[in-house]
Amino acid sequence: MPLLKNGQMIGEDAWLSVADDAPLPEHRPALISHARWQAEQEHLAGRNAPLGIHLPNTVDVLDFGPEAGRFDLIVLEFPKFSDGRAYSQARLLRERFGFAGELRATGHVLQDQLWHMQRCGFDAFEIAREGAAEAFAAVMRGFSHVYQPTGDGRISALKQRLAAARKQEAAE
User: Fold this and answer.
1) Which residue did the predictor score with more confidence, 106 or 133?
2) Is 60 exceeded by the pLDDT of residue 3?
3) In this structure, are residues 10 and 17 in contact, taking their beta carbons and an 8 Å threshold?
């Protein structure tokens, strides 16, 4: 599946997705399920190679958040375009729990939602539809103003307009 990371297409994903009953590779980054982490947490905590986790959007990030720093990659699921729980998960992981690793969106990732996903903290996207990855990469470079507030520090167009109006009123 094509991977868009930091606005660029990545040739091959370094992460190996490992089934719950399969052995983990010793020296390769491994992506495991949340269920496997819960079942084998003590054993996996001592792993010397990078470890990633796939969190379903039903996981309460307020409970999981303190463990986020143990992972180099967290994959969040968009099971359908109308289910936005992963947006909230991403913001909580970045803004409240300070997760600094790769945050990847998978599932129903849509081109028109990509920019806001990035602003919520995602820096990598699995693009399911072949041939769409280049269009998605162009979206990452296509916006100069933001409309929704997030924790990325960018000021929304509304706040910019209000500040300009206040400045104009003060000058009069």
Assistant:
1) 106
2) yes
3) no
Q: Residue 101 above 90 pLDDT?
A: yes
DSSP 100-163: -SEEEEEES--GGGHHHHHHTT--EEE--STT-HHHHHHHHTS-S---S--TTSPPPHHHHHHH
Q: What does pLDDT average to over the chain?
A: 86
Per 3-state DSSP, the chain is made up of helix, strand and coil in percentages (nearest 5) of 40, 20, 45
CA distance 103 to 117: 10
CA dihedral of 60, 41, 2, 108, whole degrees rounded to 10: -20
Q: 125 and 3 in contact (C-beta within 8 Å)?
A: yes
